Amino acid sequence: MFKPRFTTYACALVSYLFFLCLSANAQPFWVQEIHWKQLMDGMYYVELNAPDTSVVNDSRLSILKLDPRQLNFEFLTASEHGLKERTAPDWATEFNKNVIINAGMYDYNKSRSNQGYMKNYKHYNNREKSPYNNAMLCMHPKDTTQQAFEIMDITCQNWESLKPNYHSYCQVMRMMSCEAVGMEFKKRPDQSCSMIIAGTDMQGNIYILFTRSPYTHLAMIKYLQGLPLNLRTTAYLEGGPEASLYINTGDTIIAKYGSYVSNTCNNDNNDHFWEIPNVIAISSKK
Which of 14, 115, 205, 261 has the fewest C-beta atoms lying within 10 Å of its C-beta? Predict the structure, then answer.
Protein backbone atom coordinates (compact mmCIF):
# COMPACT_ATOMS: atom_id res chain seq x y z
CA MET A 1 0.00 0.00 0.00
CA PHE A 2 1.26 3.49 -0.86
CA LYS A 3 2.37 5.54 2.19
CA PRO A 4 2.29 9.33 1.86
CA ARG A 5 5.73 10.93 1.98
CA PHE A 6 4.62 13.30 4.77
CA THR A 7 3.74 10.35 7.05
CA THR A 8 7.16 8.81 6.46
CA TYR A 9 8.95 12.07 7.30
CA ALA A 10 6.78 12.56 10.39
CA CYS A 11 7.58 9.07 11.70
CA ALA A 12 11.28 9.64 11.15
CA LEU A 13 11.12 12.97 12.96
CA VAL A 14 9.29 11.45 15.95
CA SER A 15 11.84 8.64 16.17
CA TYR A 16 14.72 11.12 16.06
CA LEU A 17 13.21 13.32 18.76
CA PHE A 18 12.59 10.24 20.94
CA PHE A 19 16.25 9.23 20.52
CA LEU A 20 17.39 12.73 21.53
CA CYS A 21 15.16 12.61 24.61
CA LEU A 22 16.64 9.28 25.68
CA SER A 23 20.17 10.54 25.09
CA ALA A 24 19.56 13.68 27.13
CA ASN A 25 18.26 11.71 30.11
CA ALA A 26 20.81 8.89 29.99
CA GLN A 27 23.51 8.67 32.64
CA PRO A 28 26.84 9.23 30.82
CA PHE A 29 29.38 6.45 31.27
CA TRP A 30 32.67 7.54 32.83
CA VAL A 31 34.36 4.42 31.44
CA GLN A 32 33.39 3.06 28.04
CA GLU A 33 34.77 -0.47 28.22
CA ILE A 34 35.82 -2.76 31.07
CA HIS A 35 38.67 -5.21 30.46
CA TRP A 36 38.02 -8.05 32.91
CA LYS A 37 40.69 -10.48 34.02
CA GLN A 38 39.37 -13.99 34.65
CA LEU A 39 40.49 -15.36 38.03
CA MET A 40 38.60 -18.65 37.83
CA ASP A 41 35.40 -20.02 36.29
CA GLY A 42 32.64 -17.49 36.90
CA MET A 43 34.93 -14.93 38.56
CA TYR A 44 36.40 -11.81 36.92
CA TYR A 45 38.33 -8.85 38.33
CA VAL A 46 39.29 -5.32 37.31
CA GLU A 47 40.70 -2.17 38.90
CA LEU A 48 39.59 1.22 37.60
CA ASN A 49 40.59 4.79 38.33
CA ALA A 50 37.62 6.52 39.97
CA PRO A 51 36.20 9.54 38.12
CA ASP A 52 37.26 11.86 40.98
CA THR A 53 40.45 12.01 43.04
CA SER A 54 39.96 11.14 46.70
CA VAL A 55 41.59 12.91 49.64
CA VAL A 56 43.88 9.92 50.34
CA ASN A 57 45.30 6.77 48.74
CA ASP A 58 45.10 5.75 45.08
CA SER A 59 41.49 6.61 44.10
CA ARG A 60 41.09 3.11 42.63
CA LEU A 61 37.94 1.00 42.48
CA SER A 62 38.37 -2.78 42.68
CA ILE A 63 35.47 -4.68 41.08
CA LEU A 64 34.80 -8.41 41.26
CA LYS A 65 32.23 -9.86 38.84
CA LEU A 66 30.63 -13.18 39.86
CA ASP A 67 28.42 -15.62 37.97
CA PRO A 68 26.21 -17.34 40.60
CA ARG A 69 25.66 -20.30 38.28
CA GLN A 70 29.31 -21.29 38.58
CA LEU A 71 30.04 -20.49 42.23
CA ASN A 72 28.99 -21.47 45.74
CA PHE A 73 27.88 -18.84 48.26
CA GLU A 74 27.61 -19.13 52.03
CA PHE A 75 27.21 -17.01 55.15
CA LEU A 76 29.81 -17.62 57.87
CA THR A 77 29.19 -16.01 61.25
CA ALA A 78 30.91 -15.89 64.62
CA SER A 79 27.54 -16.62 66.24
CA GLU A 80 27.47 -20.01 64.48
CA HIS A 81 31.18 -20.76 64.77
CA GLY A 82 32.35 -20.45 68.36
CA LEU A 83 31.58 -16.74 68.89
CA LYS A 84 34.98 -16.11 67.35
CA GLU A 85 35.66 -13.20 65.01
CA ARG A 86 38.25 -13.77 62.31
CA THR A 87 40.06 -11.73 59.67
CA ALA A 88 39.01 -12.28 56.07
CA PRO A 89 42.14 -14.38 55.31
CA ASP A 90 41.50 -16.46 58.45
CA TRP A 91 37.88 -17.11 57.44
CA ALA A 92 39.10 -18.15 53.98
CA THR A 93 41.82 -20.46 55.28
CA GLU A 94 39.77 -22.14 58.02
CA PHE A 95 36.75 -22.81 55.80
CA ASN A 96 38.60 -23.34 52.49
CA LYS A 97 36.98 -20.46 50.58
CA ASN A 98 38.22 -18.47 47.59
CA VAL A 99 36.63 -15.11 48.44
CA ILE A 100 35.64 -13.47 51.72
CA ILE A 101 33.80 -10.14 52.02
CA ASN A 102 31.75 -8.44 54.73
CA ALA A 103 28.14 -9.55 55.19
CA GLY A 104 26.84 -6.18 56.34
CA MET A 105 27.28 -3.94 59.36
CA TYR A 106 26.96 -5.43 62.84
CA ASP A 107 26.14 -4.52 66.43
CA TYR A 108 28.73 -4.53 69.19
CA ASN A 109 26.90 -7.08 71.32
CA LYS A 110 28.17 -10.44 72.51
CA SER A 111 27.40 -12.27 69.27
CA ARG A 112 28.23 -9.31 67.00
CA SER A 113 24.88 -9.82 65.29
CA ASN A 114 23.96 -8.26 61.96
CA GLN A 115 22.09 -4.93 62.02
CA GLY A 116 18.98 -6.58 60.62
CA TYR A 117 17.51 -9.99 59.92
CA MET A 118 20.08 -12.74 59.34
CA LYS A 119 19.76 -16.51 59.26
CA ASN A 120 21.72 -19.40 57.80
CA TYR A 121 19.47 -22.43 57.39
CA LYS A 122 18.24 -23.08 60.97
CA HIS A 123 20.78 -20.80 62.67
CA TYR A 124 19.56 -17.28 63.48
CA ASN A 125 22.18 -14.55 63.83
CA ASN A 126 19.41 -11.95 64.24
CA ARG A 127 15.67 -12.71 64.20
CA GLU A 128 14.59 -9.06 64.06
CA LYS A 129 13.94 -7.43 60.70
CA SER A 130 15.14 -3.81 60.54
CA PRO A 131 12.63 -1.20 59.32
CA TYR A 132 15.48 0.83 57.78
CA ASN A 133 17.53 -1.58 55.66
CA ASN A 134 15.76 -2.42 52.41
CA ALA A 135 18.14 -4.83 50.69
CA MET A 136 18.19 -8.55 51.40
CA LEU A 137 20.99 -10.93 50.45
CA CYS A 138 19.45 -14.32 49.61
CA MET A 139 21.30 -17.65 49.47
CA HIS A 140 20.60 -21.37 49.29
CA PRO A 141 17.39 -21.46 47.22
CA LYS A 142 15.00 -24.28 48.08
CA ASP A 143 14.34 -24.67 44.37
CA THR A 144 17.79 -25.49 43.00
CA THR A 145 16.86 -24.11 39.57
CA GLN A 146 16.77 -20.62 41.13
CA GLN A 147 19.85 -18.41 41.31
CA ALA A 148 22.34 -19.34 44.05
CA PHE A 149 22.69 -15.74 45.28
CA GLU A 150 20.27 -12.86 44.81
CA ILE A 151 20.17 -9.29 46.09
CA MET A 152 16.52 -8.43 46.70
CA ASP A 153 15.04 -4.93 46.98
CA ILE A 154 12.30 -5.57 49.53
CA THR A 155 10.46 -2.36 48.61
CA CYS A 156 9.72 -3.61 45.09
CA GLN A 157 9.64 -7.34 45.83
CA ASN A 158 7.25 -8.85 48.36
CA TRP A 159 9.48 -10.04 51.20
CA GLU A 160 6.80 -12.10 52.97
CA SER A 161 5.88 -14.04 49.83
CA LEU A 162 9.52 -14.59 48.78
CA LYS A 163 10.81 -15.42 52.27
CA PRO A 164 10.03 -19.18 51.96
CA ASN A 165 12.11 -19.44 48.77
CA TYR A 166 15.59 -19.40 50.36
CA HIS A 167 17.22 -21.01 53.39
CA SER A 168 19.57 -18.10 54.18
CA TYR A 169 19.15 -14.32 54.35
CA CYS A 170 21.07 -11.22 55.43
CA GLN A 171 19.43 -7.79 55.60
CA VAL A 172 21.66 -4.86 54.59
CA MET A 173 21.54 -1.18 53.68
CA ARG A 174 20.24 -0.44 50.17
CA MET A 175 22.22 2.03 48.01
CA MET A 176 20.34 1.70 44.71
CA SER A 177 16.84 0.39 44.11
CA CYS A 178 15.64 -2.33 41.75
CA GLU A 179 15.17 0.48 39.20
CA ALA A 180 18.74 1.80 39.71
CA VAL A 181 17.52 4.86 41.63
CA GLY A 182 20.06 6.04 44.19
CA MET A 183 19.14 6.49 47.84
CA GLU A 184 19.28 10.04 49.23
CA PHE A 185 21.38 9.42 52.39
CA LYS A 186 19.96 12.52 54.05
CA LYS A 187 21.25 11.66 57.54
CA ARG A 188 24.97 11.96 56.74
CA PRO A 189 25.27 13.00 53.08
CA ASP A 190 28.81 14.35 53.49
CA GLN A 191 30.32 11.34 55.27
CA SER A 192 33.07 9.69 53.24
CA CYS A 193 34.72 6.36 53.91
CA SER A 194 36.46 3.31 52.53
CA MET A 195 33.67 0.93 51.55
CA ILE A 196 32.63 -2.40 50.10
CA ILE A 197 29.42 -2.76 48.10
CA ALA A 198 27.47 -5.59 46.46
CA GLY A 199 25.24 -5.16 43.42
CA THR A 200 23.47 -7.09 40.69
CA ASP A 201 22.68 -6.50 37.03
CA MET A 202 19.71 -7.36 34.81
CA GLN A 203 21.25 -10.76 33.98
CA GLY A 204 21.73 -11.78 37.62
CA ASN A 205 25.50 -11.33 37.80
CA ILE A 206 26.83 -10.20 41.18
CA TYR A 207 29.36 -7.36 41.51
CA ILE A 208 31.54 -6.62 44.53
CA LEU A 209 33.09 -3.14 44.56
CA PHE A 210 35.80 -2.10 47.03
CA THR A 211 37.50 1.24 47.52
CA ARG A 212 40.21 2.03 50.07
CA SER A 213 40.08 5.70 49.11
CA PRO A 214 37.11 7.37 50.81
CA TYR A 215 34.09 8.65 48.90
CA THR A 216 30.62 9.69 49.98
CA HIS A 217 27.72 7.30 49.42
CA LEU A 218 26.17 9.79 47.00
CA ALA A 219 29.38 9.98 44.95
CA MET A 220 29.64 6.19 44.86
CA ILE A 221 26.05 5.88 43.65
CA LYS A 222 26.90 8.26 40.80
CA TYR A 223 29.94 6.11 39.91
CA LEU A 224 27.84 2.93 39.96
CA GLN A 225 25.23 4.47 37.69
CA GLY A 226 28.00 5.59 35.32
CA LEU A 227 29.40 2.09 34.80
CA PRO A 228 28.38 0.24 31.59
CA LEU A 229 27.05 -2.68 33.65
CA ASN A 230 23.30 -1.99 33.85
CA LEU A 231 23.43 -2.29 37.64
CA ARG A 232 20.21 -2.52 39.62
CA THR A 233 19.79 -3.31 43.34
CA THR A 234 23.00 -2.52 45.20
CA ALA A 235 23.79 -2.69 48.90
CA TYR A 236 26.33 -1.14 51.24
CA LEU A 237 28.11 -3.92 53.14
CA GLU A 238 30.66 -2.11 55.33
CA GLY A 239 32.94 0.92 55.56
CA GLY A 240 36.14 2.08 57.24
CA PRO A 241 38.87 -0.29 58.44
CA GLU A 242 36.42 -3.22 58.77
CA ALA A 243 35.77 -3.22 54.99
CA SER A 244 37.46 -6.35 53.66
CA LEU A 245 37.99 -8.00 50.29
CA TYR A 246 40.13 -11.12 50.22
CA ILE A 247 40.57 -13.30 47.12
CA ASN A 248 42.70 -16.43 46.91
CA THR A 249 42.31 -18.58 43.78
CA GLY A 250 45.53 -20.52 44.27
CA ASP A 251 47.62 -18.63 41.74
CA THR A 252 46.23 -15.17 42.57
CA ILE A 253 45.89 -13.43 45.94
CA ILE A 254 44.21 -10.02 46.23
CA ALA A 255 44.03 -8.50 49.71
CA LYS A 256 42.18 -5.21 50.26
CA TYR A 257 41.19 -3.57 53.55
CA GLY A 258 39.80 -0.14 54.33
CA SER A 259 40.84 2.62 56.70
CA TYR A 260 39.17 6.01 56.40
CA VAL A 261 35.91 7.25 57.91
CA SER A 262 35.44 11.02 57.99
CA ASN A 263 35.03 12.54 61.48
CA THR A 264 35.76 9.27 63.33
CA CYS A 265 38.79 7.68 61.65
CA ASN A 266 39.92 10.26 59.13
CA ASN A 267 43.30 8.77 58.29
CA ASP A 268 44.78 6.22 55.92
CA ASN A 269 46.94 4.49 58.53
CA ASN A 270 45.33 1.05 58.80
CA ASP A 271 47.81 -1.63 57.72
CA HIS A 272 45.99 -4.91 58.38
CA PHE A 273 42.73 -6.82 58.10
CA TRP A 274 40.42 -6.35 61.08
CA GLU A 275 38.62 -9.26 62.66
CA ILE A 276 34.99 -9.31 61.52
CA PRO A 277 32.09 -11.49 62.73
CA ASN A 278 29.86 -12.01 59.67
CA VAL A 279 31.06 -12.71 56.14
CA ILE A 280 29.99 -13.85 52.71
CA ALA A 281 32.14 -16.78 51.60
CA ILE A 282 32.49 -17.70 47.93
CA SER A 283 34.10 -20.78 46.40
CA SER A 284 34.31 -22.65 43.12
CA LYS A 285 31.78 -25.38 42.40
CA LYS A 286 34.60 -27.57 41.07
Answer: 14
